[in-house]
Design goal:
Layout lengths: L5 H11 L6 H16 L3 E2 L1 H14 L14 H12 E2 L9 E5 L6 H14 L7 E6 L2 H16 L10 E3 L4 E3 L4 E7 L12 E5 L6 H13 L8 E6 L8 H13 L8 E5 L11 H4 L12 H12 L2 H10 L8 E3 L3 H6 L14 E7 L7 E9 L2 E10 L1 H10 L5 H6 L3 E3 L8 H13 L3 E8 L4 H9 L4 E4 L6 H12 L3 E2 L4 H8 L1 E5 L6 E5 L7 H15 L1 H8 L8
Parallel strand pairs: 3-9, 3-10, 4-7, 4-8, 8-9, 12-16, 14-15, 14-18, 16-17
Antiparallel strand pairs: 1-2, 5-6, 6-7, 11-19, 12-13, 13-14, 19-20
Helix pairs in contact: 1-2, 1-4, 3-4, 5-6, 10-11, 19-20
Length: 558
């Protein structure tokens, strides 16, 4: 019985509809099958199946289970394309393999299995294999997965055959070493890789990642059939090696490139509007219902539907639709639903509150806020301060700011001639305390604020607390988003504050998913929002100390 051609089998499963595949996967398999049929490529089924058999007979799972790895059809097709498609010299056709697949689809174990085959069976004496990443702990993921494969097999892990040394894993009889490697483009110049595995390249920093990849690629020339294997989900970094490979890959798949050595497998959804449709999700998740279940995705979809930041993460990591590092955060309808009610600060006389100050630049808007709780609803009152010169200039150059209307409505206080007089901020809090008996228990401020104002207010008896405006705000942003969705906050008729809320984007930290607030565009203002965030931060930080008083049950019965 002849060896199976899993490339053709997978292509037929796609055509029949048995396998849900996106545009890019359909294109690559059409190209491969057509190339095999018309003689552009030579396909050696024996070599392809040799790699598959090795992986399925020597590579074991090491997390949650220890049985042998059984490759799915999509994985067999990729292995067949890598090792079974040859050029007319009899060597492997493809030198760069680029696989984009969603989280939880077995990327790390699959890459480790490729390392194992190329280390033990590929026939390259003195092979040098590198697991490459920006930091050693990142490179450890695939490196350790490979070592677990070695330890899980009596023959591969036999003492004296494979040895783990301080800096590498060494196979004595083959004079082959497997090393983890952190970025250092200068020191990489002397390397001679048979295989370089580049894991999660979506997180490789821009220029540094590009240079490191090119250094490693240029070092391939001394080997007869070397390989760079890049496996990744989509990410947030712009203009890095991920973007570069996507551009090259899609140009090749669309027939706009004469590249012959790049082999891309881009598992992505086609229609972002159908991001929560399971058939669409399957296009980015070829291991759906194998290593990741539909139930898992249904739970993640529930979360993503109520949070724009979580939706952005879902699109990026589970659908492979690349997102900018900063994504717009709040929906217009949600802000409209928590604004518009006629409020008067005088109706909150005698209340305990928390405050926030965002001083910004002295020539621009400054915002002071208080947050008042009544019957479980948080009411936001924000007063803006602006120097007269900046006010007139803004009104003249951009009437859409509606600053004159906001001035008439009492939302803006003109302060100083050329720069904001920060004593006006102090006076505003004094007015609340002395004329309305509104008592700020804590006031948060941006730590880069004018220190003389903070000192003056501290000496006047206010409890001031600095707030670092970084990813430490992630829990506060998550809480606020939930409060807005639940309609548990009220912005009143402060249209300037509403605009500032809608000008906010969240910048997502690639490593841990934490967020920090930024402007959607540099020219936009978010000072009022940040003043509220400063207040909410001290409210959360000192909740055990002041939380009971902030409920204001001495004024309003629960």
């Amino acid at each position: 019985m002849p060896d199976k051609n899993y490339i053709r089998d997978y292509h037929e499963a796609i055509i029949s509809g048995k396998v849900k595949a996106g545009l890019w996967i359909k294109l690559i398999y059409s190209i491969l099958v057509r190339g095999i049929d018309d003689g552009t490529y030579i396909f050696d089924a024996r070599k392809a199946n040799k790699a598959i058999k090795f992986i399925e007979n020597f590579c074991r799972h090491s997390e949650g289970r220890s049985d042998l790895l059984k490759l799915e059809l999509w994985q067999k097709a990729i292995v067949s394309a890598i090792f079974g498609i040859l050029d007319h010299s009899g060597y492997r056709q493809f030198r760069e393999v680029f696989i984009v697949v969603a989280r939880k689809n077995g990327k790390t174990l699959f890459a480790a299995a490729i390392i194992a085959y190329m280390a033990y069976v590929d026939g390259e004496y003195g092979a040098k294999i590198y697991c490459l990443a920006p930091k050693l702990e990142q490179a450890d993921l695939v490196y350790d997965a490979f070592y677990q494969i070695v330890q899980g097999d009596d023959e591969l892990g036999e003492e004296g055959f494979t040895k783990k040394r301080r800096s590498d894993i060494y196979i004595r009889e083959l004079n082959t070493s497997i090393r983890r490697l952190a970025f250092n483009s200068k020191k990489s110049d002397g390397f001679n890789p048979h295989l370089a595995v580049c894991d999660e390249i979506e997180a490789w920093p821009g220029d540094t990642g590009l240079k490191q990849y090119e250094v490693m690629k240029s070092a391939l020339g001394a080997r007869k059939q070397p390989l760079i294997l890049s496996i990744s989900t989509a990410g947030y970094i712009n203009d890095g090696i991920f973007d570069e490979l996507i551009k090259r890959a899609t140009a090749f798949l669309k027939g706009r490139s004469e590249e012959m050595r790049l082999l891309p497998f881009l598992y992505m959804i086609d229609d972002p509007e159908k991001w929560d449709d399971m058939d669409e999700i399957a296009k980015a998740n070829p291991n759906l219902n194998v290593s990741v279940t539909e139930d898992f995705y249904r739970e993640e979809i529930k979360i993503a539907r109520i949070s724009l930041s979580k939706k952005a993460e879902f699109l990026c990591k589970y659908c492979n639709k690349k997102q900018n590092s900063s994504v717009a955060w709040l929906e217009h309808d949600d802000i409209a639903a928590v604004g518009g009610k006629k409020l008067s600060i005088e109706d909150f006389r005698g209340a305990y509150v928390v405050g926030g100050i965002d001083l910004s630049r002295t020539t621009d808007l400054t915002a002071a806020a208080i947050v008042v709780e009544k019957h479980g609803i948080l009411y936001f009152f924000v007063q803006f301060f602006m120097p007269k010169e900046s006010f007139e200039k803004a009104c003249e150059e951009d009437p859409s700011t509606k600053y004159r209307i906001h001035l008439e409505n009492g939302l803006i206080t003109l302060s100083g001639e050329h720069t904001v007089d920060y004593r006006d901020v102090h006076r505003w809090f004094d007015m609340l305390r002395k004329t309305m008996n509104i008592k700020p228990l804590k006031i948060g401020y941006d730590r880069y604020s004018a220190q003389y104002l903070i000192q003056d207010m501290s000496e006047a008896g206010y409890h001031m607390d600095d707030v670092f405006q970084g990813t430490n705000l992630s829990p506060i942003l998550t809480e606020l988003e939930g409060l807005i969705k639940d309609k548990s906050v009220e912005l009143g008729e402060n249209d300037l504050l509403k605009a500032h809320f809608l000008n906010v984007a969240v910048q997502i930290n690639i490593g841990d998913g934490r967020m920090r607030p930024v402007k959607i565009e540099p020219r936009m203002k978010i000072d009022g929002f940040m003043a509220v965030i400063d207040a909410l931060t001290v409210r959360s930080k000192y909740h055990n100390e002041i939380g009971r008083r902030l409920k204001n049950t001495h004024i309003w019965k629960e």
